[in-house]
Amino acid sequence: MSIANEQDQLWRQLQAERESRSALRLALDFGGEYLDATPKRRVFPDQAALAALDAFDEPLPEHPTPADVVIQGLHRLGSPATTAQGGGRYFGFVNGGLLPAALGARLLADVWDQNAALQVMSPIAAKLEAVCERWLVDLLQLPEGSAAGLVSGTSAATLCGLLAGRNTLLRRLGWDVNAQGLFGAPKLRAVLSEGAHVTVRKALAILGIGAAQIETVPADEQGRFDLSRLPPLDESTLLVLQAGNVNSGAFDTFTPLCTAARKAGAWVHIDGAFGLWARACQETAHLTAGVELADSWSADAHKTLNSPYDCGIILCRNRAALVGALQASDSYLHFGEGRDGMLYTLDMSRRARGVELWAGLKSLGRTGIDQLVAQLCRRARQFADELRAHDFRVLNDVVFNQVLVACDSPALTKRTLELLQAGGECWCGGSEWRGEPVIRISVCSWTTTPDDVRRSAAAFVDARDQALVSV
Ligand SMILES: *Cc1c(COP(=O)(O)O)cnc(C)c1O
User: CA 13 to CA 67: how far, in whole Å?
Assistant: First the structure.
């Protein structure tokens, strides 16, 4: 066959696949089956499902494969090798569930395949981003006019917030990073608690602030910034605080810390990956008192808000500081009257994650978000109560959605966790807390019911009973 004929054939195949919608239909059918099966299946894939992944280790295909065949293969081998995150008994890391409206919006937006860089590339993406910004500032009660950028996650959001902070502090010290670069710039320092998330140090390193310029303040017994150890702050300081410690869920005491920082001319960034949402819930809003005094905030919609992956948010009090730090211009870019999403993020071409963020916020509304957050906290407290009743030790104050659990000895905790993970009834991760191995529970999905918590607590007891035999 000539090359022209072969191409013709491929184009006919692609056209037929597009018109028949069969790959799309298959994906939706398989997706529906997957959602139905999720609550009933093992939470972590079994050995057979993991071993079957070897089938993907084939050489790059020489020739086209029909779309249906691609999707069928993906479902057959891929679906069983997922973790059942949306099923109600996944408590690993801090991963969120999936709201139905957000999922639907995501699927539709995937069909639209918009580039959300510029308003002129996608008016709908620009509009929904602008609406999300307004809604988020309202919902999270941040200073009026604060800007929001939609990024991949809190790692990127923290990088953007600290970038805006670094450049602002340097400008105040008479140094324009965009014009003069960093070499020879006045020195900055960062102050953070030892409980800060690893992504904060990563962002600082990328921004040219290494370990030698970071002052780490000891945390208190809950993992909060120890106010009594706050070093003197000044106009060359980036202060990083935390709404929701990744282990304990604890919140820093923002009002005195932010007040001291403002007085000193420091920049305050708050990592609120999952905890900033506490502010949108009456029962937990008190934990975030004073966050409105900071300069920038990061949050993940894909965690507590149960948006699809990936959706991080950078919020910044001073719009010009954020846009100025992420500046980009060239004669071929046409900036619009409305919102050009790329001005608020590291990326230029980007998917329209505002679509599903909007859909999630719209479908829940203020009261729905309040209930979602309150329910996650309630389930976490239930988990803690049930485990305490079975003589597990709960090591943190369960103020939000995180529970840290240990058995009578470190060896027993570790073995119990291994057996719990292997059992498949639920899934929790491990961590270390104040020098001791712990089992870490994070209640993050709207799907988790009281019965899911009861079943999972029973799995803890079974795992420990088995572990007692071998430890
Ligand atoms: C998850 C998390 C991060 C990192 O966020 P990504 O979305 O994974 O980039 C940072 N800080 C805290 C407290 C987190 O829980």
Answer: 9
Q: Which atom of ligand 1 is nearest to the CA of 272?
A: 13
Q: How far apart are the first and last CA of the chain?
A: 68
Distance 258 CA to ligand 1 centre (A): 21
CA distance 245 to 400: 10
Rounded Cα distance, 275 and 287, in Å? 9
Per-residue confidence (pLDDT) for residue 1, from 0 to 100 = 61
Closest-CA residue, ligand 1 atom 14, reads 273
Q: Which residues contact 59 (CB under 8 A, 6 or more apart)?
A: none
Using N-to-C axis directions, what is the helix angle for 123-139 and 353-389, rounded to 10°?
Answer: 40
Residues 131-160: what's their mean pLDDT? 98
Q: How far is CA 441 from CA 76, 300, 377, in A?
A: 30, 18, 12
What is d(CA 152, CA 345) in angstroms, rounded to the nearest whole number? 9
Residue 70 identity (one-letter amino acid): V
CB-CB neighbours of 182 under 10 Å: 13
At 2-55, the pLDDT tens digits run 777 888 999 999 999 999 999 999 999 999 999 999 999 999 999 999 999 999
Residue identified by tokens 């706050």 is 230
For residue range 321-377, list pLDDT tens digits in order. 999 999 877 777 788 888 999 999 999 999 999 999 999 999 999 999 999 999 999
| Cα distance between residue 455 and residue 449, in whole Å | 10
DSSP assignment string, 67-100: HHHHHHHIIIIIGGGS--GGGS-B-STT-----H
pLDDT at 6: 81
CA-closest residue to ligand 1 atom 2: 273
Q: Give, using CA atoms, the residue closest to atom 7 of ligand 1.
A: 153
Tell me which residue has tokens 């990936």.
310
274 is written with which tokens? 């999952």
**Residue 156 Cα: closest atom of ligand 1:** 9
Kindly report whether the peptide bond that precedes residue 451 is cis, defined as omega within 30 degrees of 0: no
89 lines ligand 1 (CB under 6 A): no
Q: Which two tokens stand for residue 354?
A: 């505002």
Distance CA 29, CA 112 (A): 20
**How far apart are the C-alpha atoms of 441 and 171, rounded to whole Å?**
43
- Mean pLDDT for the chain overall: 96
Over residues 167-187, mean pLDDT: 96
**Using a 6 Å cutoff on CB, does residue 274 contact ligand 1?**
yes
- Shortest CA distance to 443 belongs to which of 429, 462, 431, 460? 429
Element (H, E) at 302: none
Reported as type and span, the H/E element at residue 61 is none
